[in-house]
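Worked example (supplementary).
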Amino acid sequence: MAATTARPRPSRPARPAHPTPDSHSFPTRPYDLVKEFVFALLVVTVLTAVLAGLFSSPDEKAITMRTWAQAAPGDVVATAAGELAGTTTSATYGPPYNSAAEGQKLLGLPLQKWGGVRLPVDSQKLVLQPLAQVSGNPALTAALTQWTAASKAQQTAWATSYSDALAKAPGGQPGQVPPGDYGPVPAIAAGFLTLARTGGLEGALTSSGNFYGGDQTRALLLLSDGAYLEDTARAQQLGGDQWGMMNETGNYPGQPWMWLYTFWYQVKPFSTSENADALVWGLMMVLTLGLMFLPFIPGLRSIPRWIPVHRLIWRDYYRRHPRRT
Amino acid sequence: MTAEYGKAAGAVGGGRNWTVGLRNRLSTLVPPGQLLPDRQPVYVASWIYVFGVLTLSALVVALLSGAWLAVGGVAWWHVSSLGRFANSLHLWSVELFFAFMVIHLWGKFWMAAWRGKRALTWITGVIAFVTSIGTAFTGYLSQSNFDAQWISTQAKDGLNSIGFGAWFNVLNPGQMLLWHVVLLPFVVGVLTVVHLLQVRRHGVVPPLDAEAGD
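After joint prediction of all chains, the assembly is encoded as:
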């Protein structure tokens, strides 16, 4: 056992407002901080390498518009019709993408609305803009011309009728839709499916005239407007009500530090509230502030004194100083 | 000696010399010999104390493995077995980082380690924890794979609901990647330095009800 030495008491008088004594006034023993850090770094490096070598890391390929079109063509057509009708999630979302809704509120405060429409997305353009770049398809060009020439009300009526008919068709198959007054919408949706199958849809959505692209906002909104992305995720237990926010693909730990945030989505009133996201965020901000300022919160700051786990941590000290227990 | 010099120089400058003021401030941040101490109080005798330095070590491994990933670019690790290993190192170092940090946090809670003017140490630790969650989250968004697609499209609703999504667009992987590799690591790094300086400044919190000299 290393010899201990007592440091001289501080010359200034004790301050009753802070009964915790100065740590530098206690007996000490030799300590090598640098050696401790180097050893810890070596241990963690080796442990990390072993875990990486044994378990690797998940990397499930991103869903492309082509794989979406091949796996769920009916979903692509329904999504395209929904974008034209203005009925998809993104079309009715509100800020920051559009003004179709006010969005969620927290204690009556429209924080989502206050954020503003800073990332404007026109849901119809998610379909029409890529198709406008297609050449060599006279039927599609004629359909787009007919769509553009129609009134807004007529466009909505066509697209809504076709969306409703698709929803009722067996298996949601476009080929099973009965004849109706759908205008050019079936041709536009079919052209959209063809474009997706070619693999050219991502580039048309992300570049927006910029060679480098880099912003996937519109492509991701379109993809999440369909059912395929969510179906794929739910099949891997990644849904919001499946604790999915803290999970990732495969048998990996994911983000377990998100457990509390994820937990609230599993229980009422959050699981059934239209303002669930705002409520959970508000609650988590309050809890985080509580944790941050815990040293100043009467009662909470005394829990370690009431539940004496500290006697285990400092059991050697309390054994030597039984009067302190 | 340095302090004496500082006072003298400050007097010459009329007390408004910024350099002298900063130097004096830095020289008094940590008591002499406590920045890299070679002795520690005898009551520091528990495995729980190891988790602070383990957290710091895991952070270093996460930064180094992240830097290795950055060298190869965004998509490198999808097509290279070496890149995949680098990504795996990054993933597991982050998992260990959080595991160590949470144990460290709980340990400090049960010690009531904010006592004795150590509230700022606790606060910087909590902010570093929360900022680390944000850093890890942006990492998941920067993977350019299915996880990134799903997590981003789900997370946007939470951020948009409080208006934050208008400025912090999780559907923009370019923006998220820069937050992940530059902005948030910088904040975590600064918080870590401040946290460590606070620890060295005040020393390790004594046991509850301990008296000086025990």
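Two points are worth noting when inspecting this output. Confidence is low (pLDDT under 50) at residues 1-12 of chain B. The longest strand of chain B covers residues 39-41.
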